[in-house]
## 1
Amino acid sequence: MNLRETINQDVKDAMKSKDTKKRDALRLLTSAFKQIEVDERKDLSDDDIIKIIQTQVKRRNDAATQYKNAGRDDLLQIELDEIAFYEPYLPAQLSDEKLTEAIKEVIAKVGATTIKDMGKVMGMASKELAGKADGKRINECVKSLLT
């Protein structure tokens, strides 16, 4: 069973158990899949679906930050709940130690020595660690290792 079928099954299960929050969150996700399929006229692979879920999680995190700053705890909780529903479909994130090790390997491959080489390192690291670590975490780790 691929990732999309799993999500569709989870929507059905949420409907049966009358879990409206989960049902609605997963329906938003499936509508995002359909929108991309229509716009780009292609069938989505699991990698494409993971990228869409990551985008949705990032949007929810950004919105949650704004709601927190505005003191809107009711809306903040909705965003955090949706993130919690989406995260099980994402690959496990690397720990800080493993992320640092992976970036050290990339730095060695590229031959980077100063912060001026950050672009080369980020390009390769982003490709190798796609789905395993957030771009912001990669960026911070690369900066700390190159300075």
## 2
Amino acid sequence: MAATIRLMRFGKKGQPFYRIVVLEKARKRDGAYIEALGTYNPMTEPATISINEERMKYWKSVGAQISEGVKKLRLS
């Protein structure tokens, strides 16, 4: 199973809110996920990011790939 860490979009039209999740690489953006690692809210000033650092390190250690969107948040 190839896992990836990426953003899952929630919220209303024009008011996005994201969960940072681990899911299988072949899954859709909003498909079923393995584990939620945190949240990202770009609508606050400054943008709010909360993440479970311990679980993020675990998933990176077992080979999970990090998506471009999560890399842009500078979490990796």
